């Protein structure tokens, strides 16, 4: 057993000596210049070509400058000032109606209020009014959010038109009396029609409740002379 152990130790020592001699030969060959080791040099920091990266930076800046020039806006758009609407906003035409809504239906046929200018659907009337009075909608119509300043002549003309519309000379006390009399007559006529309708309903109800008797049967039972005898 001891001999085997000794032989194993000798073989291990020989192997280590061979490895040591191999490394020693490599080191000596490197120092003497007789051998060059080929591999990857990962023991030092990577070196960058400064001129190359400066050239890349200049090219990128030139491309960005050209892109900004191509995307540059033209002269500012001159928009018209705000103007009052010349139409009545429709908020009640679809009130109380039932509508079948499908996902493939166009926007104009979906539930809510459709804006053909902005091509969008608003779910309720309050938001719809906010939308058509908002900045986005007015810009789509070609108007800004600024109101045109009225001149002195325009203000005077507006006052004159309002005075003509509310002229007290166009309405007299006699006109008021005539209107009151006409209103009273219309009220009396409505009351008379209601009374007549009530009387007709009572007559119809009484005729429905009165039993219908066959005249032959009434004669057999002795009721044929009721209400028909003549003196």
Automatic annotation (TrEMBL):
Record-linked InterPro entries: Matrin/U1-like-C_Znf_C2H2, Snu23, Znf_C2H2_sf, Znf_C2H2_type
Basic residues bias locations: 192-202
Protein's recorded name: U1-type domain-containing protein
Basic and acidic residues bias: start-end ranges: 51-69, 176-191
Span list, region Disordered: 51-86, 163-231
Superkingdom per UniProt: Eukaryota
GO biological-process terms attached to the record: mRNA splicing, via spliceosome
UniProt domain U1-type: residue ranges: 110-144
Cellular compartments per GO CC: spliceosomal complex; U4/U6 x U5 tri-snRNP complex
The entry's keywords: Metal-binding, Nucleus, Zinc, Zinc-finger
Pfam annotation, one family: zf-met
Segments of skewed composition (Gly residues): 222-231
Gene3D superfamilies (alphabetical): Classic Zinc Finger
UniProt keyword Nucleus present: yes
MF term (GO), any: nucleic acid binding
């Amino acid at each position: 057993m001891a001999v085997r152990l000794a032989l194993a130790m000798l073989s291990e020592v020989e192997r280590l000596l061979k490895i040591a001699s191999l490394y020693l030969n490599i080191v000596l060959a490197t120092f003497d210049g007789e051998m060059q080791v080929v591999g990857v040099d990962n023991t030092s920091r990577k070196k960058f070509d400064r001129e190359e990266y400066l050239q890349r930076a200049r090219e990128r800046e030139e491309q960005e400058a050209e892109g900004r020039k191509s995307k540059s806006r033209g002269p500012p758009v001159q928009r018209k000032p705000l103007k009052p609407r010349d139409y009545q906003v429709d908020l009640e035409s679809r009130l109380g109606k039932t509508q079948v809504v499908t996902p493939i239906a166009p926007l104009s046929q979906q539930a809510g209020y459709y804006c053909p200018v902005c091509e969008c659907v608003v779910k309720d009337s309050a938001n719809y009014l906010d939308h058509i009075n908002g900045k986005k909608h007015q810009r789509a119509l070609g108007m800004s959010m600024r109101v045109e300043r009225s001149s002195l002549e325009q203000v005077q003309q507006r006052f004159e038109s309002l005075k003509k519309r509310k002229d007290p000379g166009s309405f007299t006390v006699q006109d008021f009396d005539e209107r009151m009399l006409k209103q009273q007559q219309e009220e009396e006529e409505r009351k008379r029609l209601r009374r007549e309708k009530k009387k007709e309903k009572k007559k119809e109800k009484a005729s429905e409740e009165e039993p219908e008797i066959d005249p032959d049967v009434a004669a057999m039972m002795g009721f044929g002379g009721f209400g028909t005898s003549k003196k």
